């Protein structure tokens, strides 16, 4: 827990009719990253936004765009999301036929690389690639929809991942996404998370006071 905790609000919970204003408000409220969930209705059972929307949002903020691709086959879209303004591109190992190749495609675009594990996906899937990525995103809900309940069983996996990263003396960060709220954010940090993704809690708690909610998530033990 030496790393300062970063907060990456998920715009999946924002008001899509005024998405630009929401992104500007998140920056003013002290968000570190802006988390953008991209779903294709094929890899996960929901459809969200594509590169064009990200391109429109990009000039509104200098914040890091933390783009989580839940699409398959993922390689076909990396260039589009890179050109749209993604800073971090995270993919699922199940969405590609060659993990190393996908990592290299993202690096070629000079973007940071994230790799994500669904609740039932094992660390072994990505173990030999951990030293090639900048972050590992642990999903604490089944990907597809916002507002789901946190699955505490993923914390054990996160602890094991943190041990592995420390053992190898890597700087790879651990991000967690899914049902993160004031009750469980402390547990997530203790298990090794240095980046917390949160949507419903940031946008809905305390009458939608973004600054207050980001502050609580960041500092709550």
Q: Describe it for me?
A:
- By secondary structure, this protein is α/β, with parallel strands linked by helices.
- The chain has one domain (6-219): Aldolase class I (TIM Barrel, Alpha-Beta Barrel), CATH 3.20.20.70.
- Helices cover 31% and strands 19% of the residues.
- The protein has 8 helices and 8 strands.
- It has helices at 19-28, 51-57, 78-84, 99-108, 154-167, 185-190, 200-204, 210-219, and strands spanning 6-9, 33-39, 64-70, 88-91, 112-117, 135-139, 173-177, 195-198.
- It has an 8-stranded parallel sheet.
- The longest helix has 14 residues, at 154-167.
- The mean pLDDT is 95.
Sum this structure up briefly.
The protein has eight helices and eight strands, in the order E-H-E-H-E-H-E-H-E-E-H-E-H-E-H-H.
Please outline the helices and strands:
Blueprint (H helix, E strand, L loop, with lengths): L5 E4 L9 H10 L4 E7 L11 H7 L6 E7 L7 H7 L3 E4 L7 H10 L3 E6 L17 E5 L14 H14 L5 E5 L7 H6 L4 E4 L1 H5 L5 H10 L2
Parallel strand pairs: 1-8, 2-3, 3-4, 4-5, 5-6, 6-7, 7-8
Helix pairs in contact: 2-3
């Amino acid at each position: 827990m030496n790393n300062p905790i970063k907060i990456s609000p998920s715009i999946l919970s924002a008001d899509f009719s005024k998405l630009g204003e929401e992104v500007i408000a998140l920056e003013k409220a002290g968000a570190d990253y802006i988390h953008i969930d991209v779903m294709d209705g094929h890899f996960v059972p929901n459809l969200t936004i594509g590169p064009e929307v990200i391109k429109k949002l990009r000039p509104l903020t200098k914040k890091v765009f933390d783009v989580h691709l839940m699409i398959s086959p993922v390689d076909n879209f990396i260039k589009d999301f890179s050109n749209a303004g993604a800073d971090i591109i995270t993919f699922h190992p199940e969405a590609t036929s060659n993990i190393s190749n996908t990592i290299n495609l993202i690096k070629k675009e000079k973007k940071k690389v994230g790799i994500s594990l669904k609740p039932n996906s094992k660390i072994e899937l990505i173990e030999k690639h951990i030293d090639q990525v900048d972050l590992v995103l642990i999903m604490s809900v089944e990907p597809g929809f916002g507002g789901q309940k946190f699955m505490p069983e993923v914390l054990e996996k996160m602890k094991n991942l943190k041990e592995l990263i420390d053992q190898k003396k890597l700087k790879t960060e651990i991000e967690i996404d899914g049902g993160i709220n004031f009750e469980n954010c402390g547990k997530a940090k203790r298990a090794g998370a240095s980046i917390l993704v949160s949507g419903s809690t940031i946008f809905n708690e305390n009458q939608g006071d973004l600054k207050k909610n980001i502050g609580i998530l960041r500092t709550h033990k």
